[in-house]
Amino acid sequence: MILVTGAAGFIGANFVLDWFVERDEPVVNLDLLTYAGNLGNLASLRDDPRHVFVRGDIGDRTLVEGLLGRYRPRAIVNFAAESHVDRSIHGPAEFIATNVVGSFNLLDVAKAHWLALPDAEREAFRFLHVSTDEVYGSLGPGDPAFSETTPYAPNSPYSASKAASDHLVRAYHHTYGLPTLTSNCSNNYGPLQFPEKLIPLMIVNALAGKPLPVYGDGQNVRDWLYVGDHCSALRAVLDGGRPGETYNVGGNAEIRNLDVVHTLCRVLAECVPGRDFTQQIAFVKDRPGHDRRYAIDASKIRHELAWAPRETFATGLARTVRWYLDHRAWVDAVTSGEYQKWISLNYEAGASDPA
Ligand code: NAD
Ligand code: DAU
């Protein structure tokens, strides 16, 4: 079996759901169920004996030691993280606790476990760390896309904490020989994404008749990847990646934020005729330290592991909009309570006051 951390969140849940479509290998899912974790994402697995859910912290050494001793996973896939840049600006401490200290703890316990394995199991063991393209910093308009050799230059507390964890992963391979793999992926979108990130926030606000808050001039560029394609890339890395290596993953879909929002308004209007969602677009104060452009050069994973995304931005966005329209109960559940406090903190006071 494999141990997957943070699999009640957006990408981790998609990964586990896709995993069971592709394979029969059981999964132990260790997730703290923070505001971003939602067991409802995995409701279809409630009676599936292949999925074992454990609520807990990757930073809890005793718990992680116990899980590795009991289940003897052949691999660990580490999704668990604080993942939202804006939240890292308001409150960086949790990002250091989970992304840096928690990842360190997981690595350190994994190393001890791996060292004690019999030869064949030790040879086969893998630690896959799921990271981000944000560790590379911000590109100018004419700069080449990020490759695996681009120097790290993180700009937000979030990206700095992910960069720190990547460095620890590298060090655990280099120093101890732990068979690590790291993936650095661009912006994901798709079903089950918490509506604090650009695309689901815009869908949810559009349908609710609320403003669509575009930071700054809306000209920042992101390289969008459908979440299912990220999951297939991670399976490819786990299966065939070379220990100690890093793999960049991206959708070859660089788009300015304002264009993303206009496209979304068009797709939504096709599904909900008679509404002009562009009327709701509102420019608001920029994110502090806002990275201008991300772009991924995914040639290494394409050549070494024969991976390529299946969705284009058009097909992926259409699937995503359809999912949110068909899952209004999910949206209602995750946007009640604590969520409203975040929206008022980020959009109604301080950092993102209307420009
Ligand atoms: P998410 O915020 O939706 O989910 C994170 C999950 O981790 C949640 O279920 C949460 O409960 C859990 N978690 C948080 N702290 C924990 C802890 N201390 N112990 C155990 N579980 C904990 O995040 P996501 O968007 O699914 O991202 C998953 C991973 O992929 C992150 O490591 C992120 O940095 C990385 N990533 C995300 C994107 C993206 O566009 N969303 C792109 C590239 C990489
Ligand atoms: O690049 C990978 C990263 O992508 C992941 O590592 C992060 O976990 C993930 O959150 C994402 O980071 P971004 O900051 O790029 O994603 P976000 O959806 O927050 O914002 C995308 C762009 O949209 C960014 O330029 C900021 C802008 N934006 C975002 C929000 C939430 C707005 O203009 N308005 C908004 O309300």
How would you concisely characterize the structure shown here?
This protein has 355 residues and is an alpha/beta fold.
Describe what this molecule looks like in 3D.
By secondary structure, the chain is an alpha/beta fold. The chain has a domain at 2-191 and 226-251 and 294-310: 3-Layer(aba) Sandwich (Rossmann fold), CATH 3.40.50.720. The chain has helices at residues 10-22, 61-71, 85-90, 93-115, 119-124, 157-176, 198-207, 227-240, 257-271, 299-305, 313-326, 328-334, 338-348, and strands at residues 2-5, 27-31, 51-55, 75-78, 126-132, 180-185, 188-189, 212-215, 221-223, 225-226, 246-249, 254-256, 281-284. The strands form four sheets. The protein has a seven-stranded parallel sheet with strand order 3-2-1-4-5-6-11, with helices on both faces. The protein has a two-stranded parallel sheet with strand order 7-10. The chain has a two-stranded parallel ribbon with strand order 8-13. The chain is globular, with a radius of gyration of 20 Å. Mean pLDDT is 96; it is low at 350-355. Bound molecules: nicotinamide-adenine-dinucleotide and 2'deoxy-thymidine-5'-diphospho-alpha-D-glucose. Nicotinamide-adenine-dinucleotide (NAD) binds next to α1, β2, α4 and β5.
Q: Report the total helices.
A: 13
Run of helices and strands: EHEEHEHHHEHEEHEEEHEEHEHHHH
- What spatial form do the alpha-carbon principal axes imply? globular
Helix content: 40-55%
Major sheet details: 7 strands, parallel
CATH hierarchy: architecture of the domain at 2-191 and 226-251 and 294-310: 3-Layer(aba) Sandwich
Mean pLDDT: 96
CATH superfamily heading of the domain at 2-191 and 226-251 and 294-310: NAD(P)-binding Rossmann-like Domain
Q: Which ligands, by name, code or SMILES, are bound?
A: nicotinamide-adenine-dinucleotide, 2'deoxy-thymidine-5'-diphospho-alpha-D-glucose
